[in-house]
Fold this protein.
Amino acid sequence: MDVAVGATVPARPGSAGVGKTDSAARRWQAPAAIVCALVMVAATVEIVLDASLEHSPLVPLQPSIATWLRALGGERLGYRVFLIALLAFTLAYGVLLALVNAHARARTRARAADDHDASPTGVAPTAEPGTIADRGVLGERTLIRWAIGLVALLNLLVFIGPILLSTDVFSYIAYARMGVVHGIDPYTNGPTAIVHDPVFRYVGHDWLTVATAYGPVYTLISYPLGLIGVVGAVWGMKVYALIASAVTLMLTWRVARRRGHDRVFALLAVGGNPLYVIYGLGGAHNDLIMLALMMGAVALTLADREASAGAAVVAGALVKATVAVMLPFMVLARRRLTPVLGALAALIAGGIAGYLAFGIHGIDVVSALNRDSAFVSIDSFPNELAHLVGKPGVFPVDHDLLKAALVLILVHLAYRTWRGYDWVAASGWALLAISVTSTWLLAWYILWPLPLAVVTRDRRLLAATLFVQGLFVIHQTAPLLVPVK
Amino acid sequence: MSRVRLIETTLLVLIGLLLAAATINDVVRQAHVNQRLIADLSTWRRYTGHDYVNISIDQETLGADSGREILCGNTSPGPPGARTQVCLEIWGPVVTGVRSVYGGWYLPPYTEDLHAKRYGCFGAAIAAGLCPSPPGRLPSSGRPAGRAHGSVQPGSGP
């Protein structure tokens, strides 16, 4: 990372001490950032190489797609190595974000100071070595190259490796093969309907009898992959995830710039996020496609293409329904019907396509949401809170209380948006509230608000999102404290 | 800072503290559960006399959060689940690194622990009706290759 190193900032009258402190701080920022980047890459390499050896409790049973990596050594991925790598990645990510944030602030201060120093005639003084350069302005291009390179490397490292931490991708493939190979409706049958299909042995035990919960748009785009064999389909899903990630990051970059935020910080906060890289991309989750459409909606709104923005939200919801929560905030903020019309058009088009392809079950996303909301995962916050108050777990009445709390939060956010609060931030808060109040929480669910959080002025959203993610990571560490062998 | 924003921030901090407390509490709780599972694995190994690594642990069937587990593993060397499996019901306090076995059953090779597949129930599993077949019918390989160790016997209590 290029942050002016080794030079001295000329002191302004009365600010000699501050100048020296800034310079000293800046001297170690670049090496510290490089160390952080190396730790993030090393942790990813360690996880990918170990996971390529054989399946383990952290690496689902899967066809051999990364056997060539086995020659590079490593050992079967166990909890200890994985958790140490994850903690190191998370720590390095946090420090890197702090350094990039400090750099962005210094640059902003430098620009403000230079504007202030402009001569009374309106002519800016000539930039001298040791002034603007020291504040990092001239290193912007290098910094951008470093950030893009780091994020691309992390994405590619995970792309070439095996599927990590989740069997979901095999459920996606099973649903696709049910439809195109066996002629079975994935909206009314679970993968047990294809027990003799080669993908069946890879599907997660909990999902064998469960019909798909994903929207018809996602099911339709997954169908072509059902025709190319299980290995081809796994690579196809990985390509989908990689493309969706690239689109999400590109749109995050553009939206951050349009909204006056630091692009490099936004890019690193999303693309270098440990949960995004290891869990999201590592598992080739379709949440990434939803995120791409979500950020597409934000970008389209900024370009005043509101109908298209509304359509993008609906397209995202027809991949994974959760993102539909954005639409009311978008409409309330714009106070126009255009996004609603776009959303309606997309809903009608998607609904017809879904109905023609899958019948009424293909467009009944509400019942799928209701079914999934009854599940309980050990990492969910309601489950943790239940344990805190001495209960063994979440009871049906708790689901009702959580839904009521979520409704209250959404109503408050709607009111705030109506009164002028940033609708993008409100959407982010809503997605964060959904994941925190859900009894079925998985790592990739707490990625939903992240791209929105880095493009909003309300920094509380980013802090809250990263805090929740940090708690999730901490919650994984029990096997590190007392390993079960 | 506006009044609304101040209230929101205060609430967020309080919720954050609550979630942090719940998370730390759960990590500590899970660490204690892991200590119990370590004792369960030792119990299974001592009871059967097999020092196997691949032993499945079921924390749900006898009641989630009940502290009662079912551990299943092969009765002879082979890949996980590839041989006749013996499942043990284990609960009670940890004494000298092990807990008590109260009962159990057998499963055919490559079979999940489903009620219809169990046979040869013994101990508390008979009374609880956890096997569909008549009690006492043993697989051709006989009882688990190991023997009861100390207080760890079928149906024994603490």
